[in-house]
Amino acid sequence: MADSLDLDRFLPYRLSRLSNTVSQAIADLYVERFNLTVTEWRVLAVLGREPGLSAREVALRTAMDKVAVSRAVARLIAAGRIDRGTDRGDRRRSVLHLSGAGKRIYDQVVPLALDFERRLLERLDAGERADLDRLLARLERASLGA
Predict the structure, then answer these.
(1) Which of 58, 87, 94, 137 has its CA 20 to 30 A from that of 52?
(2) What global pTM score does this model have?
(3) Tell me, what DSSP letter sits at residue 106?
(4) pLDDT tens per residue, range 64-96
């Protein structure tokens, strides 16, 4: 007989719940104000930091589903928030950049996101924050080799 699975103690489930809860809480900050989904914001956030990526590269960096990223990219292009161009070095490769409207949204949302993170992390002392960062990095590395 298989062991019993206690979801409340199962690490992948706990991490998923925490991620979903935090993502939804932060999404509440910008969904009404900017009409962005969580996936759209993540695309904007990645392109704000690393312009010129393809949709596939955005999906890899965010660990989001390629189809969800492609749909978000299409909506963002239609809304005039990102522009699609062609890579100068490889004319077959499409690259994405924030448009002027996308940059303005990015510039408004980043301080909200950072303030949310600050308020969340201030519940931990400096040592706990350092431990959390170290442990998350270790788990991320381990998951890549799992």
Answers:
(1) 137
(2) 0.83
(3) H
(4) 999 999 999 999 999 999 999 987 887 888 999
